[in-house]
Amino acid sequence: MSEKSQSGFIRISEEVVSTIAGLAALDTPGISSMFGGISKDLTNRLRGKTAQKGVSVEVGVSEAAIDLRVIVNYGTEIQKVCLNLQENVCEAVENMTGLRVAEVNVKVEGVAFKLEESESMHRGK
User: Fold this and answer.
1) Cβ contact 51:17 at 8 Å
2) What pTM value is reported for the model?
3) Distance CA 14, CA 66 (A)
């Protein structure tokens, strides 16, 4: 985004939009992590650039397009989780940057199983 104000130009970088989108994605119920191994717990500790993993952004003069690659939790309704994800990311980016979000594309790269479920399934075999 590049906008002329009375004092000069305001520009919002793709990295900033990417970080906002990544953090909003991780705050969405049903999302386990961003594709690339960044989990909610790790992101809560590190924040910043780690939230950009699994996020691709194109920023124009007044709008942005966002692509997300995510891991969803097993047992969730993937379609519903992804619709909520799109809404959350769109709202966060628009509210924080003033950019209009043209699209939020989601690619589900995997399903995460809870550790206890996974361990009990292995013990039962």
Assistant:
1) no
2) 0.77
3) 10
